[in-house]
Amino acid sequence: MKNDSIGFLDSGFGGITVLSEALRQLPDENYIYYADNEHVPYGTKTKEEVHNFVFQAVDFMVGKGIKALVVACNTATSIAVRDLRSKYSFPIVGMEPAVKPAVENGNGKRVLVFATPLTLKEEKFHNLVQRVDHEHVVDYLAFPELVELAESMIFDRERIGPVIMEKLKEYDLNNYKTFVLGCTHFPIYKNIFKLVLPGHIDVIDGSSGTVRYLKCLMEEKGILNTSGKGGHIEFFDSGVRIINEERLKIFKWLLAEC
User: Fold this and answer.
1) If I label 34, which of 136, 223, 234, 243 is the partner at 20 to 30 A Cα–Cα?
2) Which CATH class, in words, describes the domain spanning 99-204?
3) CA Rg value for the chain
4) CATH topology assigned to domain 5-94+207-257
């Protein structure tokens, strides 16, 4: 078996936002993208369910031949990344809400983190906030509706903008400097966030830093592909290779948009 691909795992479309960044930074690699469409969304499931789904998906990708793995889902990372690293020896990179850069660049103004309910319940998230939020400026808000909208393939501003503003109706936006998109589905709507929010609010996510870290790990292991020939991507829905042209069009459109 030839281990020459980087595996990407998410419950659905969200990890495409991270894969898009990987294609910019690592254009010569081959990729396997595993959307666990059968079990989406992860953020409203139990920890035990998510843990099992993740290991089923990764075992499948290992069988296909991967040399590194990106758990392109904040919820799955918080639940399973430690155990994955105990089982597998290849580089494994997870997602973490970009709370640290948000706090560091916020000049004391408040930060609002959007994530799934399960991510916000996890000790991993609260440890992160405690570690970096010395001035107690971080607030957080569960936004599972955005995952559902993305998986329903609803991407237009006219539908999404009012949902965002309704979610924020209790917040005084003048108090905030940075919004953190702490679920990989959310950057699909990054441009809509920027359009509907006041101009003083920055909207950030962790995709770029995640891929930079992956690149460093692969360089250290000597497994980085720098052939200059470009690579290819295979897409899977819960272990079934996607060959339906309409579904492939959605993935490719999202890659171009993100």
Assistant:
1) 223
2) alpha beta
3) 18
4) Rossmann fold (3.40.50)
